[in-house]
Amino acid sequence: MSHREYLFPLWIRLWHFANAALFLLLLISGLSLHFANPGAALLDFNLAQRIHNVCGVLLCLNYVVFVIGNIVTGNWWQFVPKPHGYLQRALLQVRFYVWDIFHGKETPFPSTRENNFNPLQQVMYWIIMYLAMPALLITGLLFLWPEFAPDRLFGVDGLVTVAMAHYIIAYCIILFVISHIYLASCGKKISTHYKSIITGWHED
Amino acid sequence: MRLTKLTAMTAVFVALVGFSSQVRADDADAAAAQKVQQEKTECLSCHSAQGLKTPPRADMDLKKLGGMLIDADKLSKSVHADVSCKECHGQAVASYPHGESAHADLPACADCHKKQVREIAPEFKDSVHVKANLPDFTCASCHDPHAWQKVSKLSSPKAVVRQDNADCRGCHDSDEKFARFTPNKRRDLADIHGWLPSAELHWKAVRCVDCHTAEKATGVSHAILPKDKAERRCVECHSANSSLRTRLYRQKVEESHINPVGFINAYILNEAYVLGVTRNQWLDWASFVLLALVVAGLGGHGLLRFVSNRLRKGGK
CB B198 to CB A101 under 8 A? Predict the structure, then answer.
C-alpha cells in the first residue's frame, strides 16, 4: 500500500539546499586555500578567500535559521535519539544497511511526520548539527577575526590549533555529506528520498 | 746543543713579547670602549627622558632638548652601541653650549659604511623615495642611527618585522612626519591596503618590504616599489614554496632541517600560522586515505545492491 505524507515544510527544504550550495562553495574555496599554489589551485587565492568568507558568514546565518526554525516548529525533537531501546533499534538499522538491503527488504523505520529519522540518522545528525557545526563555525569565525584567537596554544601560534580543528571538522562534515548523498538512495526506490526533499512529499 | 738552547730562549722571548703586546692591545681596547661608554653616559645625562626630567644644568633650553632625546636602551642595542657620539657629531658636542656644527656637519653614512652604500646605491636610486624627488630623504630617514639593530642580532622574525615596519609606518602613519619630506597629501595606510585581508595582522607578521621590493639573493633590496608595482599575488607567500622562505624566514630556513610531525615550513609555526604555507602533510595524506576508503565503501555498497537486485530479479 502506498503511503504519502508531507514531511519537509518549505523552510526546511530551503534551509537544506542553502546548506548544500554553501557547502559546495566552501569546499571548493576551502581546498583552493588549503592547497594554495600558483599553478595547482582550483580558484585564485584572492577569489577563494572572498568566496570562503562570504559563504562562511552565510552558513552561520543559515545555522541561526536552523536553530530558530527548530525551536519554533519543534523540529528539534526529530534529532534527539530516544533512549528507550535505542541500541536494539540502531542495530536493526545497521542490519538493514549491511544485510537486509541486499535481500530486497524495506527499511525497519520508514519516514513519518512523527518519526522522520532512523536511529542512526538521529545520532549522526545530532552530532553533525549540534557538535560539529558549531565547532566548525566558531573556528571559522576565529579565522575571519584572528584577533580573537588565542595568542599561543600548545607552544605554537594559537591559530595553528584553530586551523587544524577547522580543517579536521570540515573534512568530517564533507565525508558525512558524501555518505548522506549516497544513503539517500536507500529508499524504497533510488529516487524516493531525493524526490521528497525537493517536493516535501514522501511517498513509499 | 747550545744553538738549540739559544733558539728555544729566543722563541720564549718572542712569545712573551707577543703575549704582552696582545695584552696591551686588549687593555687598550677595553680602555677605549670604557671611554666611549663614559662619553655616552655624559651625553645621555641630558639627551634622554631622564635628562629632560632632571636637567643637570639650569641654563638649558629644555624645549629644544625635548626634540633631541635618545632612547638609551635602544642605543645600547643598536649598530652604533660601541661608537662614540663624537664620531659622528664631532668635537662640537664636547663642550656646552654645543657648536652649531653638531647637527649641521654630520658625516655621510658612506664614510664608514662604504661597502654597503656602494652595493645598495643603484637600488636606492630606483626606490620610490628617490623617484618621488624627496630632497631630505637619507639613510637615516628609515634607519634611525641611534636605534637601528642588525637583523642577525634580532631575536625572531617578528622582532625584525617590528623594527622594519615601525620605520615605514613612522612616516606613512603620521601626517606630521610625512609632511617633513613632501607636500603631497598622505593617504591612509588602511585605505590603500583595503584589498588586503586582515591588513593589521599582515603588518605584524611580514615586513612592508616583503611585498614592496623585488626578491634579492642576499639581504633586502633598497629599491622600494610603489603600490602599483608591489606584490599583490597572495600565492607568492601563501603556498608550500612560499617566498617567505627566501625573504623574512631565509635565516630560519637555513637553520632548520627538521620537519616535526609532518608540517611543511614548520619553522614558521612558532611565529604564525600562515594559510597554505604551514599545512600538515600527514593530515593531508590521512584525509586523502579516509576519503578514498569512504568512497570505496559506499561504491562497494552500491555495487552489491545493484548486483543483488539483479540476481533477485533474475531468480523471479
Answer: no
What CATH number does residue A79 fall under? 1.20.950.20
Residue range(s) defining the domain that contains residue B98:
1-107
* Pairwise CA distance, residues B196 & B231, whole Å: 11
- Whether the link from the prior residue into B260 is cis, omega within 30° of 0, is no
Residue B20, judged by CB atoms within 10 A of its CB (0-12, 13-18, 19+), counts as: exposed
The mean pLDDT value of chain A amounts to 91
Mean residue pLDDT across chain B: 86
Cα–Cα separations (whole angstroms), residue B252 to B224, B266, B268:
24, 10, 8
Residue B189: what pLDDT?
95
Is residue B119 in a domain? yes
- B187-222 pLDDT per residue, tens: 999 999 999 988 998 999 999 999 999 988 888 899
Residues of chain A with Cβ-Cβ distance to B282 below 8 Å are: none
Residues of A in contact with B314 (CB under 8 A): none
Cell numbers describing residue B197: 585581508
Number of H helices, E strands in chain A: 7, 4
Question: With contacts defined as CB-CB under 8 Å, which chain A residues touch B273?
Answer: 156-157, 159-160, 162-163
pLDDT digits (tens, 9 = 90+) for B254-274: 777 666 678 888 888 878 888
CA-based nearest distance B271→chain A, Å: 6
Distance CA B252, CA A110 (A): 61
Q: For residue range A66-99, what is the model confidence (pLDDT) as tens digits?
A: 999 999 998 888 888 888 888 999 999 999 999 9
Q: Going by C-beta distance under 8 Å and a sequence separation of 6 or more, which residues neighbour residue A74?
A: none
The residues facing A156 across adjacent strands are: A153
Q: Do residue B98 and residue B18 come from a single domain?
A: yes
Let me know: does B71 contact B146? Beta carbons within 8 Å.
yes
